[in-house]
Specification:
The chain is an alpha+beta fold. Helices cover 47% and strands 11% of the residues. A five-stranded antiparallel sheet has the order 3-2-8-7-6. Strands 1-9 form a two-stranded antiparallel ribbon. Strands 4-5 form a two-stranded antiparallel sheet. The structure holds glutamine.
């Protein structure tokens, strides 16, 4: 028995996607990682999955793209499961920065020199250093296996071209990592930690994968389709709170007002979001607004939230 909302989505979602697609022209595909510049500028797609596993897709939901910063939510979860809360928050803070995702500004300003939160680049690089595993390959493999489990997709892989491109153009991330090493925050070999980070940012997904991963968060760590618990509830609570306060970079405040759903974006144009207890949602739209979020994707989520009353607030 489909709900009223579900029936409305089936009927109207394709139209809403086309309305938001008009925004693409105002946006820019990320090019600081050269390989990302190849993404289709006018693409916009969405997949919404409910707790029974039924889903509705519209637009270009099937195009593959790399997770980029969306992966940071899940490496945080794995690091929490590996180390516990105290050890993680010894090395990374809980506050939004108000700065760009790749800013180094506050690493020096505020003592003891730990990154403000785990969803900015500096914080996520520290999180990569906390993933358990004897060597870099083992850490990267554990991340990939964890993502595969959450997405219920054994075929998730690192996009080698994007990985190479990112590793070859990461001077800013490298300087941050060395800075953190000098601060005594980052343990281990800088190159290896960065490699774990570049690889998890470069994992290829579709909107369906994001929707399924988001569904696990929407159901507090349990995959509602299989009934399997993947993540302790407390850690999901932490991750979703970071998504609200920091998930859309320094546009998180505006997004909370206009959309009001926990979300995480990436520079490849993906957005992972959810309606608690109901839906997991994956969006892709590679053309970005000036703050680095999918311009048409944000517009589409504003439409959904406003028309379906999905704001948490
Ligand atoms: N891999 C990207 C970077 O480190 C992730 C950034 C993002 O998606 N905002 O720059």
């Amino acid at each position: 028995q489909a709900s009223e909302v579900w029936i409305r989505l089936q009927k109207e979602l394709p139209q809403w996607v086309e309305e938001s697609r008009a925004q693409c022209g105002e946006g820019k595909v990320a090019s600081y990682i050269p390989e990302l510049a190849k993404a289709p500028h006018r693409a916009l797609g969405i997949q919404i999955m409910n707790g029974s596993g039924a889903s509705i897709a519209a637009g270009d939901a099937a195009i593959p793209f790399t997770m980029q910063s969306i992966s940071k939510v899940f490496t945080l979860l794995l690091a929490l499961m590996d180390n516990g809360e105290a050890a993680v928050f010894d090395k990374v803070g809980m506050e939004p920065t108000g700065d760009n995702f790749n800013s180094m500004l506050k690493l020096e300003l505020v003592q003891p020199g730990i990154p403000f939160n785990p969803l900015i680049n500096a914080g996520a690089i520290v999180i990569s250093s906390l993933i358990a595993g004897a060597r870099m390959e083992e850490k990267s493999d554990r991340v990939l296996q964890f993502f595969r489990k959450l997405a219920a997709n054994d075929f998730l892989e690192v996009n080698e071209a994007v990985y190479q491109s990112e590793a070859a153009s990461a001077d800013l991330n490298r300087s941050m990592a060395y800075f953190l090493k000098d601060n005594g925050v980052l343990k281990g070999k800088v190159d290896e930690v960065l490699d774990v980070y570049f690889r998890h940012c470069s994992i290829n997904v579709t909107c369906a994968d994001l929707a399924r991963m988001a569904l696990v968060l929407a159901f507090d760590g349990t995959d509602p389709i299989t009934g399997e618990r993947h993540i302790p509830r407390r850690y999901v609570q932490i991750a979703k709170t970071f998504m609200v306060t920091c998930g859309m970079y320094n546009a998180s405040g505006e997004f909370a007002i206009e959309v009001g759903m926990p979300a995480k974006s990436g520079v490849a144009g993906g957005i992972l979001t959810l309606v608690p207890g109901r839906y997991g949602i994956g969006v892709v739209g590679p053309a970005l607004n000036p703050k680095g979020n999918s311009i048409a994707g944000v517009d589409l989520l504003e439409t959904l939230s406003q028309r379906l009353d999905w704001s948490l607030f």
